[in-house]
Specification:
By secondary structure, the chain is mainly α. It has a domain of 288 residues. The chain is 79% helix and 0% strand. It has 20 helices and no strands. α6 runs parallel beside α9 and α7 packs antiparallel against α9.
Length: 573
């Protein structure tokens, strides 16, 4: 679920058959100097992406905090969340898979071959398709929002809720066009190995949204401090402030890429050629990826409705998800960005040993960094939410609901991070069908568990369903990869993962024992709990890894030293 899942669809690697890699020597024609220089560029680009992603996540977190302070966890918050999900859902369902499946490798090949005509046909046709899709979606705004409000909360004025949601949805659906333009321009830049603008542009979007939210208290004055749902209908200025704040941010995110395109020398002419071979090839490549994305979006719709729109449950789950994705985006994706080119290079060289070594090491490093975050969220969910969100209109009840959702999601970070990295192994072989099948299995399991658990445990149950489904899917993905790539031992890898889980669980237990008697879950008490828990957790995790003699620690040191060496080498050149 969520946008982070679609990150897995962005990798289409060199050509190859079903099991194209065989064990070879180092006969690749690549000298040590060339390889070091290539790795230096990869790590430098990874640093740019990681820093941009990190700042984007931080400003995104700040956006969530400001929204909670200003709006609270109300029916209005759920209407906003449902409306803001609409452009994401429509875009991902109809074009997200197509645009993410093969754009970067396709543009890379076109630009290397100086085939600007094909690139122009893809860009021009996609822009027209985006404009048409945006117009159609805007016309059907009432039905689009209704999809996210099929199961409204009891006691809610459903007609008013849907009227408000539809009004916001009409404005938010304009984002579809800008999401698509951003994907097109970002892919062109990445194909040119220019990563800065695309990685950092989301920061501007968050800043715009934060600025408009901060203006809300100035625009509106309510004696009870709560902004009623009807205010969106009664105050056109408030409606447009909320709508254009989010949409304007996404538009800016796309438009700031234009100067970067110009500086890259990509002065493409507009061509609308839907029957061009390049356009047809893009659609063909994206077939399974389209199904992958559709399965994710349908699950999101089900989960959002099980959270009872209008009750504040949607908002609680959405805010908890932002916290959940933070360590994955900051840690796991940074590692993946560094390792994916090497995995793809190993496949292209038919070097099975290198592919297996890189995949194993990458998954273990992902686990080393994200598993402790999972148990920290489980233990510190309430004080973290209390510290960062329990201010202004975001009261203790809202904090309790959000913390319950985060606690349910917490251990899912273990399965989620391993699962998405494991899928890279299939994409490195240009296999998009297997990830689609595994992903369908994960989504069906998620939905089934959500229906079973949400009646008794509400947002906590939705989080638990997510967690269980991804842990099971991660194990399944490793098992299938074990079958696909002979010599890849899923059993050995799972033993290493289990060792990391034991270390992280030990850390979580120590944290729980230490922070349990400390103060309240808001204000100073929350500050103390989070600080003490983090310090104790870090020390106990290192201690547990040492006792268990986890080899991943040494791998991390080697990787760190390698980065330093490459930096020194690039500086000296």
């Amino acid at each position: 679920m969520g946008e982070t899942e679609s990150e897995a669809t962005n990798i289409v690697a060199p050509d190859g058959d079903d099991d194209p890699v065989t064990t070879t020597g180092s006969d690749s024609g690549v000298t040590g100097s060339d390889e070091q220089d290539g790795m230096s560029h990869i790590l430098r680009n990874n640093a740019i992406v990681a820093l941009g992603t990190g700042l984007s996540r931080l400003t995104g977190m700040l956006r969530v905090i400001v929204f909670g302070v200003v709006i609270g966890q109300t029916a209005l918050a759920d209407a906003y969340d449902g409306a803001n999900n609409s452009p994401n859902a429509v875009y991902e369902l109809l074009l997200g898979g197509v645009l993410s499946a093969a754009l970067v490798p396709m543009f890379s090949r076109m630009l290397e071959e100086d085939d600007h005509e094909s690139a122009e046909a893809v860009v021009g046709t996609a822009i027209i398709a985006l404009a048409i899709l945006t117009a159609i979606a805007t016309f059907f705004a009432p039905w689009v929002f209704r999809v996210f409000s099929l199961n409204p909360a009891e006691g809610l004025d459903v007609d008013q809720f849907r009227t408000v949601g539809t009004a916001l949805t009409r404005i938010f659906l304009l984002q579809i066009f800008f999401y698509g333009v951003s994907a097109l321009l970002g892919s062109l830049l990445n194909a040119q190995r220019r990563f800065f603008a695309a990685a950092w542009s989301p920061v501007l979007s968050n800043i715009v949204i934060i600025s408009t939210l901060l203006y809300v208290p100035i625009l509106l004055h309510h004696p009870d401090d709560r902004i009623p749902l009807a205010e969106v209908l009664n105050s056109p200025s408030f409606r447009w402030l909320l709508g254009l704040g989010a949409t304007g941010g996404i538009a800016l995110q796309a438009l700031v890429l234009l100067p970067a395109i110009h500086r890259a020398g990509l002065n493409l002419r507009f061509r609308f050629q839907p029957r061009h071979p390049a356009v047809k090839r893009l659609v063909e490549l994206s077939g399974w990826t389209f199904g992958y994305v559709m399965a994710n979006q349908l699950t999101i719709i089900v989960v959002k409705n099980l959270a009872e729109p209008g009750s504040g449950g949607q908002d609680a789950f959405a805010k908890a998800s932002v916290f959940f994705y933070f360590p994955h985006g900051l840690l796991a994706m940074s590692i993946a960005t560094t390792f994916i080119p090497e995995m793809a290079r190993a496949v292209s060289r038919r070097d099975k040993a290198a592919f297996i070594e890189r995949t194993n090491l990458g998954i273990r490093l992902v686990g080393l960094l994200t598993f402790p975050a999972a148990f920290a969220f489980l233990v510190l969910a309430r004080p973290i939410i209390g510290l960062l969100l329990q201010h202004g209109e975001f009261d203790s009840t809202a904090a309790d609901n959000t913390a319950r959702a985060l606690a349910g999601l917490a251990l899912g970070l273990i399965g989620y991070s391993v699962y998405l990295f494991a899928l890279r192994g299939f994409y490195a072989h240009q296999d998009t069908r297997t990830p689609f099948v595994i992903n369908c299995f994960q989504n069906v399991l998620n939905v089934a568990l959500a229906f079973a658990l949400s009646p008794a445990y509400d947002v906590l149950g939705l989080g638990i369903a997510f967690s269980i489904s991804y842990v099971v899917a991660a194990i399944a993905a490793l098992y299938v990869l074990n079958i696909k790539v002979r010599g890849f031992s899923a059993v050995d890898l799972l033993r290493g993962i289990a060792r990391l889980v034991v270390a992280a669980a030990s850390m979580g237990f120590v944290m729980w024992v230490v922070v349990r008697p400390i103060g309240a879950n808001a204000g100073v008490g929350a500050v103390v709990k989070v600080m003490v828990g983090s310090a104790v957790g870090s020390l106990s995790y290192i201690g547990a890894l040492t006792v268990l003699r986890a080899p991943e620690v040494e791998h991390l040191r080697v990787l760190r030293d390698r980065v330093r060496l490459l930096r020194a080498g690039s500086t000296g050149q």
